[in-house]
Structures are given as structure tokens and as C-alpha cells.
Amino acid sequence: MAIKTKISAQDAVNMKRLLDSCKNVVVLTHYSPDGDAIGSSLALWEYLKKKGKNATVIVPNYFPDFLKWMNGADKIVIFEKQKALSYNLLNMADLVCILDLGEASRMGDELGRVVSGLRRTKKIVIDHHLSPDKNLADILISCTDSSSTCELLFRTFLAIDATASLSKPIAECIYAGMYTDTGGFSYNSNDPDIFNIIAELLRKGIDKDLIVRNINNNFTAERFRLIGYVLYEKLQVFPELHSSIYSLTADELRNFKYLKGDMEGVVNMPLQIRGHKLSISLREDLEHPIIWVSIRSYDNVSARDMAEKFFGGGGHFNAAGGRLEKISMDEAIERAKAAIEAFRDVLTKDDTPSNGTTN
Questions:
Q1: Helix/strand/coil percentages in the chain, nearest 5
Q2: Residue pair 308/314 in contact by the 8 Å Cβ criterion
Q3: Is residue 180 within 8 Å of 35, Cβ to Cβ?
Q4: 221-233 burial, b for 16+ CB within 10 Å, e for fewer?
Q5: Which helix (H) or strand (E) holds 122?
Q6: DSSP state of 4
Q7: What is the rounded end-to-end Cα distance, in angstroms, of the chain?
Q8: SS3 for 266-313, per residue?
Q9: Among 48, 148, 187, 242, which is most buried by a count of CB atoms within 10 Å?
């Protein structure tokens, strides 16, 4: 079965022309980059390097330790710690590729402003989130029904006739991003094409079992103690509303020697409670006065709507997030409780299919 590209022929032609003609390229992604962000960025970086381009990946802030095994991860520039270098690279770039985000603000205020201000630099956006900013790039590759940006990047390579040149390291990064953004292919992964893509990645020689071990078996003992603390001490369960909230302050995180990525996926765990439809995580940032909000849901409960209405965020229907500033953790918890109460009707409906679908 042929894999669909999901990309217009004109966009493919225009993108190939830009990639062929550029010399200095910066690849960017969103604040607090996850597996899909790092995987897609490094996959594109490796492809550009193979084409003889001067390419660099810049991320707004630190990314999780469990992603540092990927080829090229040690060469990523951290904007918050290497601002002078980042500014220099962006000013020299004749092409900027923006992955896994559709709004400049998701890069953080300062980096977002810098990128938006690059008027003479060509930009390409490849993203699978809803409602991307069409003014952000010269070429927008958007497909909201893709499981991940890595999946969409593979389809992009297919559209520009570049899959033959994809190396094993590129395939590893793409698989890692697809795996992490679907919870190990446990949600948002019912498109048969996803598994055709995986078959193609396997043909490039990847060891998917080793990739999974690199992602899942790369934590400290303190991370498991932190999860135990969350589940035993901090989890508030609201059985009538099929919902839960947990919160972590900066002091609590420091007590467990928190590392970036230690709480990855934990917000999904309360959804294993029978009948649960909603899980909300509230976590203080260790460096900035921000409370990060993660929301996961099942069935017809829109995490995206909740994130937009209560937490200044957005995302996918069943997986979304936001941020709260100038607010205490106690106030954030009360806001989360108010959000749950506002969704009481949909949370208490018993006529939705319990299929665990997440988008």
C-alpha cells in the first residue's frame, strides 16, 4: 500500500526549491521540547547536513535527558543559555524551519519575537497542531490528523522525493518522535499508514526495541520516588466527576532531584482509574514564576477547550496544556477544580464510548 503524502504538490515543489537553494539553516521548535519536537528537529537537521547545508537546531530551553541519545542531540543550541550564539545563527540564516508548533509564542516570548522579526529570511513550518498561524511562514505544511510532527515530516520527505536518502539516524529520530507523541502507539495512531511508515523506518535498519528502551529505561531512582509521592500524597481524585488533579511545587521537585522530563507521561496515569475521563497536572517551573498545566482526557471531554478557557493554552482535543503566571499553587488548584466543575455535564455523561481515544 502506497503511503499518502497529505501534502499539496505545489507545497512540495516550493519546499524542495527552498531546501535546495538555502545555505545556512536554523531548525527551531517549541518551549519545553518533547520527543516529537526533538525527534523531528534532529531528523531534519541530519537530512540537511547530508545535503551539505550549514544547519543548526536551536531549542528555547533544556530538553529531557531521555532524548539525549539521539544523533546530534549534543550539538543542539539552547537559546536561554546561548543567546549570543543563537542570535548570530538566526541573523545568518537564509532559511528557518519551524517544527511542531504553529504559533511563534510557543517558542517563548523572546525567541518568538526574534523569529517573527526575521522579515527577509524564508521560513517553513511543519506542524500537526490545530489553528496554525498562516502568517508565520512562507510555506506551511499543516496536517492536524497526523499523529505527530515526525509522521508529517516523513510524509514531507516522501512528497519531495527524499526518502531514498534517509539514513538510519534520521529514521531513529522519526520513530522516537512518533512513539512518544502517541504514548507508544496507544492513542491517536489508528491510521494504517502509520504502520506502513514504521515498516519503512525498519527497512532503514532501526532497532525499535532499543529506541523504546532508550526512551523508557533512562531515568533516575529519584524519578520513581517522585511518581510514588505524586500518586500517594498529591493525587486528588473526584470519583463523581471521573477526574483528578495533582500538583508539584518547585520545592517538592527539588526534594526529589527533579530532572527535565521526569514527569513525562505521568499525567496519563490517573486515566487508568476505572471510569476516569480527565487528568490535570500542575507543576511549578524551577527557573521561572510559571505553573505548567497538562491536561489529558478520554471520550468527548475536550482537553483543548478546557486549556483555552481556564489556562491560556490549547492543544489537541484529548491532550492539551497551558501556563499560569502570577498565581499561587493553591490558586491554580482552585482554578483546576473550577474547570472540572465547568465540565461537569460532559464528565458525568455515561453515553460516551469508553475506547480510550486520545488525539
A1: 45, 15, 40
A2: yes
A3: yes
A4: eebeebbebbeee
A5: strand 122-127
A6: P
A7: 25
A8: HHHHHHHCCCCCEEEEEEECCCCCEEEEEEEECCCCCHHHHHHHHCCC
A9: 148
